Amino acid sequence: MNSLANFATLIVNAPDFSRFANKPGAAIWSQFIALPTTFSVTCLIGILVSSASTVMYNETYWNPLDVLSRFLDGYSRGDRGGVFLISFGFAIAQLGTNISANSLSAGTDMTALLPKYMNIRRGGFICAAIAYAICPWNLMSSSSMFTTYLSAYSVFLSSIAGVVFCDYYILKKGLLYLPDLYIANNSSPYFYSNGVNWRAYVAYICGILPNIVGFVGATQTHTVPMGATYVYYFSFFTGYAASSSVLLILTLLFPIKGMPEDSKVFEFKFYEEWHEVEDFDIYLRNKDLDLGIIDADDDDTSSSIEDAFASPSGEKGF
């Protein structure tokens, strides 16, 4: 479960990278095969190194840097050179991990929230400042503290993954009108209630609640029932299932716009299809014309919505 929690952030932030893929299926191998395999191998190596350190040094080391420090007891030139190369590899890996898994995702989210003031670079700098402010070295003070920190990923991110899965695959079945995602008024089916889909927030909180009691117990600050601890052991699956189920129920009780009109919720059907996005500016301009936001006299675009989004076969769609 700790291995799954470790790449939970990559699960929810995968679109930050997969959106640059040349074809829809390009991300399948990396997400379905490479990530689980590499993270499992990394965890296995950690277990083997810790077990070997117990046999060699009569002390169990969970931090690989502590193992490297033992290599320098009575070291030779070769030992010192090997420790330097391994440490340099750790430094490069840490730098690459923070850029790809932390800085870019934080910068992307901040840019989406405040596009007028933020960009990905500024968001990355703010992320770095916040990282120093929370004193992350305290999370490495012990192995139990580190594993508790890793498990927190599952508690808070699994609920996000469940909401995204339910909304896209079950409710909308892959049907998204991409230009409408950038329209901040009631004409967009994704504007919901003043731009907020309260159902998703309620589902997110409900996904956290089953695991939060066990998480508090894992911090060893309070004693919690064993039942909550057992639920916490499967935190990712528990939060994922709870949040997606609550969102499904709330959407059935309080329907939203943007769902396929000719398909039922539990019908196995999918609407996702590839479409180029270069002509979105034409669509949005015509949308503003229809709403009266701009005057026809000011419009220098002669193409219509149908022309902008007509497929080679002549069919209209997104």
Automatic annotation (TrEMBL):
Its chief place of residence is membrane
Per UniProt, what is the membrane topology?
Answer: Multi-pass membrane protein
Q: Which UniProt keywords apply?
A: Membrane, Transmembrane, Transmembrane helix
- What is its subcellular localisation? Membrane
**Transmembrane helix keyword on record:** yes
Q: Which InterPro entries match?
A: Pur-cyt_permease (IPR001248), Uracil/uridine/allantoin_perm (IPR045225)
Q: Which residues cross the membrane?
A: 32-57, 81-101, 122-140, 152-171, 201-218, 230-254
Q: Name one GO cellular component term.
A: plasma membrane
Q: Which GO terms describe its molecular function?
A: nucleobase transmembrane transporter activity
Membership in a protein family = Belongs to the purine-cytosine permease (2.A.39) family.
Specify the protein name. Allantoin permease
Q: Which organism is it from?
A: Pichia membranifaciens
Q: What is the lineage of its organism?
A: Eukaryota, Fungi, Dikarya, Ascomycota, Saccharomycotina
